[in-house]
Amino acid sequence: MIPPSFEYLRPNTITEAVKLLQQHGDEAKILSGGQSLIPMMKLRLARPAYLIDINRIKGLSYVREEGGFLKIGALTREAELEAAPLIQSKYPIILDTTHVIADPQIRNLATVGGNLAHGDPANDHPATMLALGAQVVATGPGGERTIPIEDFFVSLFSTALEQAEILTEIRIPIPPPRSGGGYFKLERKVGDFATAAVAAHLTLDSKGMVQKAGIGLTNVGPKPIKARKAEDFLRGKKADAATIAQAAQLAADEAQPSSDLRGPAEYKRGLVKELAKRALSRAAERTGK
């Protein structure tokens, strides 16, 4: 299908983009990679009168460690993230995630910031960012503000970004030693959205007990889910098979799936349990590396 007509705007700076958002209000949408927005426009599910393309704004594509955080610029392409030596060497959970996003053609255009700002519970990065305890930097008329990722996702396709704000950076606390994570996803075919997926990240203390745990669930609720009960259960325990199995059941209990063409709700809840076992087991295994 062909999208409705719109006015195309191309700012050169973040300040200019924010001013355009203020000027056009709810009729404007930000275009970064466009791999979610453009299909929705073609299906007439999104009808922005103004499309603000931020791809010409310099300085929004990078992957670096700085000030205790892994910092990812909002315009960093999925393919760039996947190829970044820093991600390949130190952040395997992020590598797991980028590997299963759509296909190489889409990853060449899609951006990490757009994946989060779209607010789709079926996207892959939200669960991983929940597991890692990330922060989102939003830039608006009043400057920058930092939003904890657990407060960022409000409801279906809705985030904590205010009308004239743009997501400009993702910050992930650099994990301490003896940390590891993993992301597991089941999809109907390669490149599809997940039927269900689970991200898990663990940090162990010197005695091998779980000091910190993060678990995020994909596409089993109206927004990405942080499995807090499962996280709380893991802390202070040894990450053995029995503990992981109990935590996986708690994560499944926290899921809020609905029946659709991908399967009935109980099937998805069962998937969460199994995928949580795999993600937690991989996370525990990677803490030793």
From TrEMBL:
GO terms for molecular function: FAD binding; oxidoreductase activity. PROSITE patterns: FAD_PCMH (PS51387). The keyword Transferase does not apply. The keyword Oxidoreductase applies. InterPro entries: CO_DH_flav_C, CO_DH_flav_C_dom_sf, Diverse_Substr_Oxidored, FAD-bd_PCMH, FAD-bd_PCMH-like_sf, FAD-bd_PCMH_sub1, FAD-bd_PCMH_sub2, Mopterin_DH_FAD-bd. It holds the Pfam family FAD_binding_5. Keywords: FAD, Flavoprotein, Oxidoreductase. It comes from the Bacteria. Residues 1-177 form the FAD-binding PCMH-type domain. This is Xanthine dehydrogenase family protein subunit M. It comes from Candidatus Acidiferrum panamense.
